[in-house]
Amino acid sequence: MAEASGEVRANTHEEWLAHVQPTGLVVAAKVLDDRASAPARQSAEDTAQVVQALEIADARAKAGGPYIADPWAFAVQVLEWDPTRVAGAAGGPSLPDEAMASLTEHAVTLRPDYVVLAKAGDASFENWLLFVRTLAPGVDIDKRGALDGWDATPSQQMERLLRETGAPAGLIIGAKVLRLITAPRGESSGWMDFPVQALTDVAGRPMLAGLKLLVGKWGLYLAPKGHRLPDLIAESRRAQANVSTDLAAQVLGALHALLRGLTAAMPHRIGALAADPERSHHLYEGLLTVLMRLVFLLYAEDRDLLPRSARAGRWRFTKPTTASGAYWRSWKRTRPAIPRPWPTASAPGVVSWPCSGLFMRAMPTAGSSPGAASSSIPTPFPSSKAGTALTHHRMCRAFPTRPCWRSCAF
Predict the structure, then answer these.
(1) Is 92 inside any structural domain?
(2) pLDDT at 150 over 70
(3) Residue of higher predicted confidence among 196 and 290
(4) 245 is a domain residue
């Protein structure tokens, strides 16, 4: 097998991470780049090594493809684990009691089959690198009740075990898939799957390289300090926390900017809403929902996720509802003068900016969450009936070239 210091493709991390499609956060590509951890290019010899560790000749393999019949043999032959550094393996120390978790509410005790250790013979908590659970052929990793004792999936049981014991990561070796799981206490879990069938194909060699990088002998034993699996996981979580903090500051600034704009347009209405203790939360929820919808629309446009081929889809998504379409129509209506508000038909004394109702329709009604769309009344002010609001929405979409004749939000 080629060592991790061998020839590496450009954008290797993005390539193999795109193959495994992680759910949640396990390891961040930026952290992998910063830590200079790069998997080696896999060859036909490496793929053949995987095939030799699988069962490919019996009736089960002929019917459903190759599978892992002996998880420990796969770990030794493909991942090159050292038995003296694996608690619970022949030649290694016994499983420590601290690696078990008793769940009194479910009357079950969770334990790993193996614990990969940083030092040979030392099974103390400081040397835990990876909890390992093996599944027999036919056991579904995501099926409830697949294991005896607790009616939870094997993946959920591993997550609970990691949280109870504080282990940095867990690996489930199933017959058809290997799943790497992280579940820190007080944080959301993440996992990534390595399908066994894909590891035997040429197209799956980047995935095999990523698997060896994280849970092979390089990622567990040989990498420099700070480049091993627990270090990459911890640094990825810290990087995510920093990004979340920066993003929260940006969102708060955007909320303030949007609030200042609305206050300048209609100070009496915004002031009255903010001063009402029973309805003041609608203001924050509405502004947050508008920003969330704007971010979604901008992301969808940037990724070209909105349909553009069909005429109906092009009109629906590119003209009346997208952020760029709304901006263009607002500018087109008001040029060359400075954008000005239009009076509404239902309330002549209240003005509405062009297309403001487009995004204000997302503002929640009383009792709804900030991310929930309003299915009946499109504003935080329940002053119109659902049927009237729906009719107005349809009319607004039917005539996208004229100003909104009725205020959607205020």
Answers:
(1) yes
(2) yes
(3) 196
(4) no
Residues 271 and 132 placed together within one structural domain of the fold:
no
My answer on whether omega of the bond before 66 falls inside 30° of 0, hence cis, is: no
Kindly state whether residue 137 falls inside one of the protein's structural domains: yes
Chain segment 332-355, per-residue pLDDT in tens? 555 444 344 444 444 444 333 444
Q: What are 319's two structure tokens?
A: 């003209």
Q: What is the DSSP letter of 5?
A: T
Q: Print the domain residue range for 303.
A: 266-398
Banded pLDDT at 248 (limits 50, 70, 90): confident
CA distance 150 to 135: 15
Domain termination site, one of 187, 220, 236: 236
Buried b (16+ CB within 10 A) or exposed e, 134-157: bbeeeebbeeeebbeebebbbbbb
Beta strands 128-134 and 170-173 are parallel
| Residue from 354, 385, 383 nearest 282 by CA | 383
Mean pLDDT within 298-302: 80
DSSP 127-191: GEEEEEEE--TT--TT-TTSSSSSSS-HHHHHHHHHHHHT-S-EEEE-SSEEEEEE--TTS--EE
- Residues 68, 134, single domain; the answer is yes
Nearest one of 89, 121, 118, 90 to 217, comparing CA atoms: 118
In this structure, the answer to whether residues 167 and 283 fall within a common structural domain is no
- Least confident range from 280-294, 300-314, 371-385: namely 371-385
- Dihedral angle at the C-alpha atoms of 396, 402, 403, 407, nearest 10 degrees? -20
Residue 407: inside a domain, yes or no? no
Q: Does the pLDDT of residue 398 top 50, yes or no?
A: no
Of 219, 236, 253, the residue that ends a domain is 236
Nearest in space to 407 (alpha carbons), one of 365, 362, 346 = 346
Count CB atoms within 10 A of the CB of residue 322: 18
Count up the domains in the chain and report the number.
2
pLDDT at 113: 96
In DSSP notation, 199-252 reads: HTSSTTHHHHHHHHHHHSHIIIIISPTTSSHHHHHHHHHHHHHHHHHHHHHHHH
Beta bridge pairs of residue 178: 173, 194
- Interior/surface letters 298-308, b for 16+ CB within 10 angstroms, e for the rest: eeebeeeebee
